[in-house]
Amino acid sequence: MTDTAPAPSRPDSLTVRPDGNDRLASLAALYDAYKDAADAANEQLKAVIDAIKHELTSRAVPDEKPPVTKYTLVHESLRAPLTLVYAVSNRLDTPKLKAVHPDIYAQFLKASGSWTLRRA
Question: Fewest CB atoms within 10 A around its CB: which of 35, 62, 67, 73?
């Protein structure tokens, strides 16, 4: 009779503390500064984009038929013209589908995964 020991369980989580000369340590040292700079730049860019959208759409003639759905901004300071386009999108109300037709919801449900890096 042979005894078989249970396989050691693998943790689903791993904490990594890289050495000072490790490439991962160098990348970790850059992360906070770059992340903060990117967040600040993204905030400023969003404010500029929102203001440009407002300024462009305010130039339309009220109640114009057909309504303007595309604006092109041309300016010497831009590398290329900017285009603002109105687009209609249709989205599936998945919570409602799940509540009303759980069988159809389950039939078309497809699991997927991705890695996300964020602060712990």
Answer: 62
